[in-house]
Amino acid sequence: MSSPPVPPLPAVPLSALLARAELGLRQIAGPPAEAMPVYSAHTSEMSDPYPYLLGGELLLTAGVHAPADTGTDAYYDAYVERIVAAGAAALGFGVAPVHDTVPSGLLAACERRGLALVEVPERTTFSAVGRALWDLMTAVRHLELRRVTEAQQGLATAAARPDPVPAVLRQLAQRTGGFAVLLGPEGTEPQRAGTPPSEAAEAALADLVRVVRPATTRLFPTPASASDEVGGVQLSAYALGGPGGRALGLATGARAPGDHTIAGVAVVLLSLLQGEHRSTGDARRSAALVRLLLGERPQDTAELLGAPGAWRVVHAQSPGGRPVPVLGTPLVDATDALVRALVPADQDVTAHDGWTLGVSAPAAPGELAAADSQAAHALARARALRTPLVRHRADIPAPDVAALSDHPELRRTLRTWLSLHGSWDRTANALGVHRNTVRQRIAKCGVLVSADLDDPDTRMELWFALRDLP
Known about the structure:
5-stranded antiparallel beta sheet, 17 strands, disordered N terminus, 5-stranded mixed beta sheet
């Protein structure tokens, strides 16, 4: 059976939480805490919390649901089995106020099922455990962002060297702690960097790279990327732009959250640097990209792109399995989830079969960040209205959903209110508060997001946007 999915958040080893002396947590059963990643903390006193777990949680309970007598081995065995089946990382048991000690039946069940069991002392509240975990996750996220930023700068510097391709490969291998291989046209010797993995993993990486290389005999479009795992080694392959079917392979011991972003930068740089015949336009775009990555302002590099001055940003999404739409520009960033493109403002953008597009207003190079937000807003409207293409309208500002990021109670109220089609009474019943409290919270939400919540289109966009917030 495959492992349950876990939230797309940075994980914290259980050992880091146990090391917080102020919590006084103590592991009393299960595998080593160092090898147990925790993605969130969840409190439940249900006898079967399985339907409410996403996977990777530290499940906290005071044992209210558990029988008081000691002959409950069968109960605890079934309880732990469901927690393990849901993919929870560990179980935290509070020894007060219901139980004076951790029940022996629970301890034995966790040992049998291989579930980490943590004793939470009476003086430590579950909310304190949750806050400590969030602090640790925030620190991990900041470290990962800094690592990605430094890797991008290193790759950009490598791309500006006299022999850029080997330099970029070396930087990619170093920054990911893995092995990188670049395959050119058939018959050319691959370029390598880093320590090669095992023979089995290297052979599997070679097979994976072939998956993303174009082939005239294939019945289906060639994927832009592919991934696999062999013997604990994480394998990734990426198709490079340009002729000749060039592709990049990457093997790492673990797949950190920022590795995909780092590899994406390397793919862009190698696509621009590779090629037997690079046009003047290719060279200019490569120079513009390197300058941007090295910190120059967009308005100072725009002249290298050859556009008259103004651009439109296009966001496009498809259910999957379709070739990237032809938008009439080489400035395209395509991932599995989203295609973004820069299109000259005087060039028309039309709908594409099977794709949903959002198009920004014309923007100068220094305003492209705002245009990117406009395109995202237009795409959200297109999805909400189920239309293939929506252009940005200045008279309908995008709801500022990010303003709710520091207000979890308001987010929860707004999400519930939208799911119940704006019913005050049903929302109040669902949240267990007075309807006037709901009205006050929704009014605050309207002020924070700077939008008219009576507009049905705005409600649709908020519903889609809130799905991306915790």
